[in-house]
Amino acid sequence: xxxKAVILVGxxxxxxxxxxLSLDMPKVLFPVAGRPILSHALxxxxxxxxxxxxxxxxxxxxxxxxxxxxxxxxxxxxxxxKYLREYRALGTAGGLYHFRDAILKGNPYxxxxxxxxxxxxxxxxxxxxxxxxxxxKAIILGTHVEADAARNFGCIVTDDKKRVIxxxxxxxxxxxxxxxGGVYLFDRSIFDVIGAARVAKIEDSxxxxxxxxxxxxxVLRLEQDILVRLAQTEGFxxxxxxxxxxxxxxxxxxxxxxxxYLQKLxxxxxxxxxxxxxxxxxxxxxxxxxxxxVDPTAKLGPNxxxxxxxxxxxxxxxxxxILLADTEVKHDANVRYSILARGAKVGxxxxxEGSPITLDEHQTVMVKNGAxxxxxxxxxxxxxxxxxxxxxxxxxxxxxxxxxxxxxxIIM
Length: 412
Ligand code: GTP
Prior knowledge:
Residues 4-205 form the Nucleotidyl transferase domain. Pathway: Nucleotide-sugar biosynthesis; GDP-alpha-D-mannose biosynthesis; GDP-alpha-D-mannose from alpha-D-mannose 1-phosphate (GTP route): step 1/1. Keywords: Transferase. It catalyses: alpha-D-mannose 1-phosphate + GTP + H(+) = GDP-alpha-D-mannose + diphosphate. 46% of the residues are buried. Helices cover 22% and strands 31% of the residues. Strands 14, 16, 17, 19, 21, 23, 26, 28, 29, 31 and 32 form an 11-stranded parallel β-sheet that branches. It is globular and about 65 Å long. It is of the alpha/beta class. The chain folds into 2 domains: 3-247, Spore Coat Polysaccharide Biosynthesis Protein SpsA, Chain A (Alpha-Beta Complex); 273-411, Hexapeptide repeat proteins (UDP N-Acetylglucosamine Acyltransferase, domain 1, 3 Solenoid). Guanosine-5'-triphosphate is lined by residues 8-10, 14-15, 57-59, 86, 89-92, 95, 115-117.
């Protein structure tokens, strides 16, 4: 019996918190640990033998994914991968409903639905096992966070059998530390629930005398419109992961995601292509693209990814950072807790620094002198930082030349 997966990839008008990095590419194609964010979910799906088709649903132009799809189809021959484009943002459940015929074609036995912007250990086979054991209709991945972070997420209340009895998206008061991990497993009855939610929404908008043409009636949100309803039915369970989990929302959150995926790779396959061997100058895990050139006296790691054709000079120090393609860090410069987008250049003896973060923190902004600043320093495309300049906790928009020291600023 075959299963399918839908990955919700969003579109150009979403993911704005990922700017300025999403100005050049959709967030889901941004590389962490040497691979696009989306590829990490595909790798996890490839480990589920029953998955025969993966559908990416979003509202980007078709052309945005064409190269990625060609490459992914070669890398993952075990399933077919297609992109289905919503004519406008239909919400996290609206797209599922709109493409229900394509999703149900071939009568799949189970359907995974994955938010493209979660970074986690993807315990998909364990979710399938729970589905069978519980004779469930729906499983949600749940993860535990600190009480003060929980209110920023969808919160789940269960009974002692792990049945979901209550779901509230971003509640005003604390109801649970167990939150929605953005990965679901459904059987086909989910489309009945979405259909019923859609009818209820249309009836509500008619009662409220909204315009017949009001397009927002088409928008359905999995979290608010569907999960709340599911929690009132039988057969909805939570699989609680103890593995790593975080969302990739702000640009800075790519740095902890990079660390988590590098650590996972390092633990599972120390000889994986691109992983640098530990030495006096390499503190693992460090990923170096084969086309990058790194001087042997540069000290890298932990948690560093170096992209294609990047150049790293002698005496450089880099830790907790992502360098994209065609970046350059000149001799004796220091780069920490930072992201260098494509073509960004850092001069000799310069310092580009964010602030240390812990991997289980769900924030990449902090308050300094009353202002909210990024704790990850981000140089957007083709930014140039001159020799000996120090730039700390800044977001620098594309094509800027930075010639004096700057701290805690957004440079436009
Ligand atoms: P907030 O977290 O509330 O700021 O919203 P968000 O749009 O950043 O993320 P949300 O948690 O609502 O979305 C989860 C995933 O679904 C992300 O990968 C989004 O890109 C994707 N997504 C959100 N809205 C849509 C939509 O209308 N259509 C599709 N296909 N995907 C969507």
